[in-house]
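Structure first, sequence second, as always.
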């Protein structure tokens, strides 16, 4: 299933800047960055549970915000992209 993860971490303090980097690193392990604080993650239910747990242990719920949008398995009809950055094909071949 495709999950869109968006976050807003308060970076007014040094600790906030650390949390921001930690959240981004966790998201990079599960998906692809599509904008500064937005990731597309193609995960199964177990991975989603781990992703959510890892992020929720990092953020400060009083100052930070995280959103998970579950687009499901049939997400291709739900996404439209326009502009400079190319769209990443989650199901396409992976070439290194």
């Amino acid at each position: 299933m495709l999950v869109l993860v968006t976050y807003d971490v308060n970076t007014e303090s040094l600790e906030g800047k650390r949390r921001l980097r930690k959240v981004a690193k966790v998201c990079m392990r599960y998906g692809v960055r599509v904008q500064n604080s937005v990731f597309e993650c193609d995960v199964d239910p177990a991975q989603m549970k781990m992703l959510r747990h890892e992020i929720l242990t990092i953020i400060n719920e009083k100052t930070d915000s995280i959103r998970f949008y579950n687009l499901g398995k049939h997400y291709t009809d739900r996404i439209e992209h326009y502009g400079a950055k190319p769209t990443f094909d989650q199901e396409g071949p992976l070439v290194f």
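Margin note: Strands lie at 2-8, 31-35, 38-42, 65-72.
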